[in-house]
Amino acid sequence: MKTTITILFLIIFSNLASAQFDTNYVHITRRKFTITPIYEMYKSRYRINNVIFDNDTAYKEVEQTYSSKNNLYLGVGVSFYRIGFSISFLLPYSNIPELKNTKSFSFIGGYSAKKFYGEFRYRNYNGFEKDVYISTQDSDKAEYTISKNVHIQQMSGLIYYFSSKRYNYDANFKNYNIQKKSAITPLIVGGVNYIDIKGEFEIIDSSSIKNVYRNINVLAFKTGAGIAGTIIYHKFYATVMSFIGASVNRNKISDNITTKNYTKIYPSLEIKTSTGYNSNRFIASFTFAYDNDLVYFKPTKIGINNFYIGFKLGYKFSYKYLGRASKYL
Known about the structure:
Blueprint: H1 2-17, E1 26-27, E2 32-54, E3 58-67, E4 71-79, E5 84-90, E6 104-113, E7 116-136, E8 140-162, H2 169-174, E9 178-179, E10 183-204, E11 209-233, E12 236-254, E13 259-278, E14 282-297, E15 300-318
Antiparallel strand pairs: 1-9, 2-3, 2-4, 2-15, 3-7, 4-5, 6-7, 7-8, 8-10, 10-11, 11-12, 12-13, 13-14, 14-15
């Protein structure tokens, strides 16, 4: 047993120790740092679907879609060889006038280490636009309302592993390093996701619809596999990263009527794309990301969709402007 563990440790250690990038495909930037103005948009959508059967024949289907306003942020990012960070501020704009003064906060941050990339995400929204569609055997009905008392919080941490030495995440999405040639790589993903939803929701049964204050908690452990690839033309690039996997969810729903717990396995999907210009001096990029999760509380299904759009323009400065501080960054 000890011999097997030792062999496995040596294999993992040797793989990490040799996980340098192919310099014919990736230029590793060391003596520069970047300053990048950024413009970002975050949006989340929660689709709640209920299907109720009466006497195994008649049915009532109620679909509720809660959409956050378009949360726009303006800020600046700074990247060094070892670390990077960004600061952004919510803009006073809302595509849903009734939600103009509601609060929101979004954050995405990550850290790269050779072929690994770790990312932390946080979203906190108050107030949603609610669209309700009720379908029965006899009629269809659509309603539109504003739900200011709904609060949703999401936190997640993911670790990506890219197996090829020819593909570099920092070059294609953070634009610090430079992808010199087109490349493709398999990837594996693992992580944890926490969702907390509070507010007035509609409980559906065969005879009525009642408003009840609910608290929904979801703790999900997800894993998956996918592929990432990039196409290079001179200094222009287009890259896509996608994975599909499974999520093991521990779901809890409570209100003033009952408390229910479920443990289920659901599919999980994520897509992230970026395109732009990345040279030794200048950066210009457009990024779009989408992820999808599913939660189930009998007879309710909740589909969770998150969208991200980002623009950035940047310039790479020489480390000489940092003086002695450069060796710590």
